[in-house]
C-alpha cells in the first residue's frame, strides 16, 4: 500500500443531493487522485457515517492500486429514491453517483 504524503493538494466540490449539500474533497499527489472525503449531514448521523465509510474504502482502493476509472465505472448510475434530476445535464442520482461524477471531473481536468 502506498504511504500518504505529509501534504496533498485538492479540491472540495459542493454537490446538491436529495438529502442536502454533499461536500466532496479529492486530494491528489503528482496529479494522481489518492484520497477522497465526502461529508453530508451532521456528525454521527447515518448518512454521514455512510459517506465516511464509503470514501475511506475509495481511498483504500486507490492506495492499493485500483484505477480511478474502474471506481468511476462502478459508481455511475447508482440511484436513490429521490434523485436530483434538474438541470438535466447535471442530474445527480445519489451520493455515490455524485462522488464518481466529481472524480470524473477531476480526471478530466487533470
Structure summary:
Helices cover 36% and strands 25% of the residues.
What summary fits the major beta sheet?
3 strands, antiparallel
Strand content: 15-25%
Mean pLDDT: 91
Low-confidence stretches: none
Helix content: 25-40%
**Global shape:** globular
Q: What is the helix tally?
A: 3
List the helices and strands and how they pair.
Blueprint: E1 9-17, E2 20-29, E3 32-39, H1 46-63, H2 68-75, H3 95-108
Antiparallel strand pairs: 1-2, 2-3
Helix pairs in contact: 2-3
Explain how this protein is built.
- The chain is α+β, with helices and mostly antiparallel strands and 110 residues long.
- The protein contains 3 helices and 3 strands; from the N terminus they run βββααα.
- It has helices spanning 46-63, 68-75, 95-108, and strands at residues 9-17, 20-29, 32-39.
- A 3-stranded antiparallel β-sheet has the order 1-2-3.
- The longest helix has 18 residues, at 46-63.
- The two termini are 23 Å apart.
- The model has no long low-confidence stretch (mean pLDDT 91).
